[in-house]
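Batch 3, record 17
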Amino acid sequence: MHLSAATWPDVRDCEAELAVVPVGSTEQHGPHAPLGTDVLTAEAIADAGCERLEREVVRAPAIPIGVAEEHRQFPGTMWVSADTFRDYVREAVASLATHGFDRVVLVNGHGGNVDALREVGARLSRDGDAYAVPFTWFDAVGDHSSEMGHGGPLETSLLQALEPDLVREDRLEAASEGAADGWGEWVSHVNLAYDSTEFAENGVVGDPAAGDEKRGEELLELAGDALAQLLEAVAERDVSRPDRR
Amino acid sequence: MHLSAATWPDVRDCEAELAVVPVGSTEQHGPHAPLGTDVLTAEAIADAGCERLEREVVRAPAIPIGVAEEHRQFPGTMWVSADTFRDYVREAVASLATHGFDRVVLVNGHGGNVDALREVGARLSRDGDAYAVPFTWFDAVGDHSSEMGHGGPLETSLLQALEPDLVREDRLEAASEGAADGWGEWVSHVNLAYDSTEFAENGVVGDPAAGDEKRGEELLELAGDALAQLLEAVAERDVSRPDRR
Amino acid sequence: MHLSAATWPDVRDCEAELAVVPVGSTEQHGPHAPLGTDVLTAEAIADAGCERLEREVVRAPAIPIGVAEEHRQFPGTMWVSADTFRDYVREAVASLATHGFDRVVLVNGHGGNVDALREVGARLSRDGDAYAVPFTWFDAVGDHSSEMGHGGPLETSLLQALEPDLVREDRLEAASEGAADGWGEWVSHVNLAYDSTEFAENGVVGDPAAGDEKRGEELLELAGDALAQLLEAVAERDVSRPDRR
Amino acid sequence: MHLSAATWPDVRDCEAELAVVPVGSTEQHGPHAPLGTDVLTAEAIADAGCERLEREVVRAPAIPIGVAEEHRQFPGTMWVSADTFRDYVREAVASLATHGFDRVVLVNGHGGNVDALREVGARLSRDGDAYAVPFTWFDAVGDHSSEMGHGGPLETSLLQALEPDLVREDRLEAASEGAADGWGEWVSHVNLAYDSTEFAENGVVGDPAAGDEKRGEELLELAGDALAQLLEAVAERDVSRPDRR
Amino acid sequence: MHLSAATWPDVRDCEAELAVVPVGSTEQHGPHAPLGTDVLTAEAIADAGCERLEREVVRAPAIPIGVAEEHRQFPGTMWVSADTFRDYVREAVASLATHGFDRVVLVNGHGGNVDALREVGARLSRDGDAYAVPFTWFDAVGDHSSEMGHGGPLETSLLQALEPDLVREDRLEAASEGAADGWGEWVSHVNLAYDSTEFAENGVVGDPAAGDEKRGEELLELAGDALAQLLEAVAERDVSRPDRR
Amino acid sequence: MHLSAATWPDVRDCEAELAVVPVGSTEQHGPHAPLGTDVLTAEAIADAGCERLEREVVRAPAIPIGVAEEHRQFPGTMWVSADTFRDYVREAVASLATHGFDRVVLVNGHGGNVDALREVGARLSRDGDAYAVPFTWFDAVGDHSSEMGHGGPLETSLLQALEPDLVREDRLEAASEGAADGWGEWVSHVNLAYDSTEFAENGVVGDPAAGDEKRGEELLELAGDALAQLLEAVAERDVSRPDRR
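Prediction for the assembled complex:
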């Protein structure tokens, strides 16, 4: 059930305990992909996961602005501080839980949100407000995961499958040429860079041309399956906090 | 320019100083209207205002969850605290301003957000981060404004114009019968109620049947015109802070 | 019972549940009226309301500094941030409630405090710390209310009734000439101004000469009656929070 | 110049750099003395200090509620948290400083405020917002200081001088009999008590009968002189922060 | 039991309710004494106190950075804000209390921490998280206490007893010559200085040469005894919060 | 230069820009290893890194309590909230930077601190207070890194090299038998567990017996080399923040 389209009596009559909350970011994704990429992909994968499930799940609206200060030098990137993001997500999830939707998967489309969402999930779960875990789709697409990048092959091909008009095909080649090979500048397993522009000339990491609509469909399939499996596990899990030793 | 669909070079090449940020809420709107009403209407009116303007304007994604604890007894209503909402909006707007979009209109669809948005606008403007003002569409639709209510004639007819499928026509009569006449319980010009369920049995204030698609189109027209006029004024205004007396 | 003059055994022996907390501001009120206007008037009306009531009421000391950054360009204006003001009022009221005075009316004399006090009242009431509502006296003086302004006819005539020595009669004419007609600069029902000096040359809104001691006495009468009626309603109200739908 | 009674042009024309802000508390002072004791005494001593000075000084309204949780078991005691108190005082003082009154003495009447005020003064001074120091009157009355207590000989006799009607003379004997000899319960120079009721049966420390109006006048004289001397020193002091070593 | 050296089963099998937490500061102590003085001394005295006790006590690791902004002009001084320090200590103590060690003495080595630790102790104790009191060793060494200073005779001689290599004997004479006689610059019982460099040329207060290893041993003895006595009292105390009057 | 042992003139005369701050945690490390493991190892590796460097480096005292709520069910574990930890570390580092040590490596010994330290480093670096990066030693020990666990082969053998007395050799076998194979309970690449006791019976992950003193020495060597290399890179790096695109 899409919460945005439902009325309150619909929600009252719904017997779900599970909810999914897509969490994205509005930030640069190279010269070829839109700033809304992380919202769009998080929503699509949240929906794909819900569709695959036999249980009822409440699907909340996507949270559109995240922890993206790392891209701030690229025009159009929006962000809030990690503190504010944590508060916003935590309180939004807690409000869902008051209605009985207290097992929540945060379906995330942005790497910069990962740490903050894990912290939020722990806080909610330990405080007993809700049991919540973040699911970052590109971590759960099998071997593809190793090629993630930023505005790279995975996101680009998923967009090609979902919203082809939003991918500037005529800039793919240039995007590819100006792309960085990997995320960050590393010495002794420490990333010395804090801003993506320090290592990614045009904001892209990975080759955006190394995919296509078909790969995108496969990613959607893989991530949707993984999310459905996770939702099932979350629904069945004993979420009571353990006793002291 | 819709920020979500744009790429960063598009944004870099855009000469706007103006931005609009739709701000909504995901909350009960009676048995006939969807929880996403305030997001949907805020977005539509933001777009209507931008279209009417000759200047370029950046249109940010909508902020979907607001100050709606007053509806918390109605299933599905989401909310964050006023503190967190203020932080989220303020920081999001400040991030836009770093890119030069530092004259911002917050296009608001929810009464519960009004005070918080005014506070945010003042803070941003006085700190010199951005000049920002909130525009609440239903305050700017001429004589219609006096009939606002909640899930009442204005919101319902605007939805009928925008997304007719989301209005449960078969529940309109019941919605109308169970509706409250006005917002709150007043003694000595003080509203004694803090939660809408204290005075609105089914969450509706005003007669949702007192409108239709045509009225909705008129509202869109009126609000769009008013917003365009406001944007023009914001673009032209001397926003420097005044000197001490 | 005035708390400041009472001893703790007096308070222990008092059977009130009701308390009033005057809330003011120390801020410019034009060339003719003192910076303490909002404290003075809030106190006077709080006392007038209590006197008219047959029940016992605890009357707390006035909170003297409020949300008045809007007047900061005028010398002598004091203020705190809205966050700090909310905390200060909320915690002060919560401390009263620990002694059993848990139905509280915040008697307010300053427009800039209105939104913050409503938020505080909601927080206290929803958290179950106390049931608290703000009463802003100039909203409850019948037809006079429409002429409120700032340092205008209502405040000036009330001061003439309460503390005539504090009104500089010799500056009334000049104050009147330099006054603004209305509060703010409006486009599309949005006030574009954040600081009063943007639209009020001498800090006055409304004609301070359009009143006299007699009008002031009438205002005191009207507001006192309205407050007494409110206190009675607050004492009798079922303040338990409603159930979920 | 009393700020509350002044108009903004009066303040504009005043050449003071110095301000005094009385800071009190509304809290139990035994069965014989009023809850407003600390506000009343702080105001009186602030005024006494200003009168003795040849320079002009701005006198702000008193802050009436402080850090008094230690007296919370006694009916009528009001308090805010130390965090909120610090914010309220600091921001109020910072607002004064924007008008040029940036050398500020916080004239304090309550022991529980001492630590918090010192922290506030340090913060303001180090941040360069204002140079501010707290002055606690009963530390500056010569040999009398050693007898301070709570609701004891010093406060009682000062009240007898200032507002004799507020002292319940008929309860003085009982107050005296139920009084504690000293503040706290000490082991190894550590006070094991956090609440005054742990060691002071009726809330009194020291003998309230060991004074009279005449002693009160002497205290006023001594504290007023000390404050005037302090104000002079504050006015003359080089308040620039020192360089690094 | 030293927590840092213990394993969790050791802790589980320990029947203590008492814990000591050394709290220090890393800050200048003149040209002759190390920046770690306050950590070192707090640890030594914590251990001395525990050794003298027959009950079991858990000894936590020392908190090494405190409220020391007052020494910031002297190279190497580290500090955190009082807010952060209070949070860090309070949460650390609360975590101990979850394991049953809910009677806690904060063994403090730094004057600048005193007020903050008292506030923390009150908060923990009133909230019922733990009963906690701060013990500042140099307040509990009999007549020696009056000579405390900073990097002066007490700290220097205690270091000479504990870690003689860390005292630069060849700089003692110079340290002594450049030392201030007392802490602060006082007018009317108010310290006008906020930074130690305002009154202490080389950061020293009191004569560092007025002691020796033997005096240090005596201080250790005295403070250890006092702490042991305090721990005994804390263990035996009725720490329930008193009722309302 | 060890800050704790240095005097302020020593620090003044030191020409370092680099500082290292060891950051640990006091938390369970299984039945065989001490709660202070993460502090001890972080300090040892910090020192090993500094020794290998030709430049001068300031070595701060270790921060002993971290983000370890995940181990809270195991007796003796101490922790603070992530918010408080971030504040404490950030402000401590900022205080170092005021003395010119504004290139800082946070040498971390605890997995639970990693996300928080990265956030702190970013904040400090973007705000221009200091350039700071976290180095977590067990990420930088070559192929060993994959066997990290908790109280497992790496930490145990490092302790055997550093402080053999603190390893309970007689419990190693039991520790090994009760150990978990991996950290967490994973479904779809999401860890469903928030507390270590959910998956690690005795708090151990990995085989603590799969190492010895010699392996520990190798780890110290590897981590020390990696840290020295990192410090060199930090010293040489252009740490100015990049321009907007």
